[in-house]
Amino acid sequence: MHRTLSAAAVALAVSAAPSAAASAAQRPVNAEAAGKIRAGFSRLMELANRHDFSGLHAMFWQSPSALLVAKSAVPAEGNWAGFWGNEAIDRKLHDIGTSGPVVLEPDYTKLKIVGLTPDVAESYAPMNITVSYAGQDGTPKPFLMIIDWIHIGKDWKVASEIILPVPPAPAAKG
Q1: Which of 26, 5, 141, 161 is nearest to 90 (CA)?
Q2: Are strands 102-106 and 80-84 parallel, antiparallel or unpaired?
Q3: Which range marks the domain in which residue 48 is found?
Q4: Domain with 89 in it: what CATH number?
Q5: pTM of the predicted model, to two decimals?
Q6: Torsion angle of alpha carbons 106, 151, 67, 164, nearest 10°?
Q7: Would you write out the chain's pLDDT as a tens digit for each of its 174 residues?
Q8: 63, CA 20 to 30 Å: which among 8, 38, 84, 119?
Q9: How far, in Å, CA of 83 to CA of 92, rounded?
Q10: What is the 3-state secondary structure (H, E, C) of the chain?
Q11: Distance of alpha carbon 51 from alpha carbon 44, whole angstroms
């Protein structure tokens, strides 16, 4: 009898755990936090379009774990790479921003923000980016920008920024 009750308790705990984790992960951030993140996202786009490197630096979490995923100009790194820590992020943003025109045009109507924990949120926005860095031809192309935000004091900082190119649609079959 004791084994049956123990087995039933374990089965109940295991079956309840995924739904509890799923509901916690789906929890939206509160309106105040979402507003701050939305404003931070707009500010980030403004600073990037102005090539304000010190302003961009201040938007990022000051940590060796801060991450920027972007186009690489170094073949050994691959076509796209991760740049870890503020020094590497600052250098990469400077290299991109001084390579020629850079214009980020997010679709704010599709900006989504979800809370992952009370102090971590993720934003997602499709956008067109015009850039001529590392062989790109300077014409606007579609990208997705995924940002993980971390709540530090009163501010939300960029913990990771992942810029993904949207591949062209496959050719229609005859």
Answers
A1: 161
A2: unpaired
A3: 28-165
A4: 3.10.450.50
A5: 0.80
A6: -30
A7: 444 434 333 343 434 444 444 444 456 689 999 999 999 999 999 999 999 999 999 999 999 999 999 988 887 877 889 999 999 999 999 999 888 888 999 999 999 999 999 999 999 999 999 987 766 677 899 999 999 999 999 999 999 999 999 988 888 886
A8: 38
A9: 8
A10: CHHHHHHHHHHHHHHHHHHHHHHHHCCCCCHHHHHHHHHHHHHHHHHHHHCCHHHHHHHECCCCCCEEEEECCCHHHCCEEEEECHHHHHHHHHHHHCCCCEEEEECHHHCEEEEEECCEEEEEEEEEEEECHHHCCCCCEEEEEEEEEEEECCEEEEEEEEEEECCCCCCCCC
A11: 10
**What distances in angstroms separate CA 15 from CA 3, 99, 148, one per listed residue?**
18, 53, 29
User: How many domains are there within the chain?
Assistant: 1
In DSSP terms, 125 is beta-bridged to 145
